[in-house]
Specification:
242 residues; two-stranded antiparallel ribbon; 9 helices
Length: 242
Amino acid sequence: MHHTTIEQIQVAATPRVTGRLNVYFAVAALVLVVAAPHRLAYAGALACFGALGVDAGGRGYLGVLRLPVYFLAPTLALIAVFTPGPAAVSVGPLAVSWPGIQRTLTTGLRSLSSVTILSYLIVTTPVPEVVGALQSLRCPRFVVDVSLLTYRAIQTLFDELARLELAASSRLGFRTRRTTLATSKALAFSLFVRSLSRADALDDAMQARAYDGTLPTPTTPNTGYGYVGTVLVVLAVTGWGV
């Protein structure tokens, strides 16, 4: 048994958009989603990038997307429960208000669509390609460094989750619904602790290889302009034209 790493998923991915254009595409779409005033734009981004991500990475993309959803779901539940207003559903001492449902829907769609875009970028674009694109945009050095660290941290989280799930599965941790719930709790508890340890090990490895903050920037042909134009037009129309 083995787990698939982010690097293996990236190598096997077959994106419709390639080169630094893919980075510009994801960043532009993310800006449109964050700025869009209508929820239809969030749904459009979710559909477009979900389809592009599955087409490029298959199950690997869904595996990357699953990790942030684990952390997003409890947050949305708290928003629904603690937003004041007329109660729509009551279960014991807990009540979900109508404003809570509306806010949860808006926040959930916006967050999930943003995560879908970022997961697509992670699956289809290696780190050096992202760094090269940011440098070509004349981004400040600290922006490039923070983006690189965030990008790599997500990769580390995904790899660590895969290892933990593999270990739990080999011990029949997902045999029944009850054991699955208990195992999921244990995974969530230990994920950040283990990932911090992995991050320290990664930093030590980079320092041992005389890393000076500069990554090689490969040159890959840009393809897929038609897909880029179509998706961005869909997001602009659904965000501001409807």
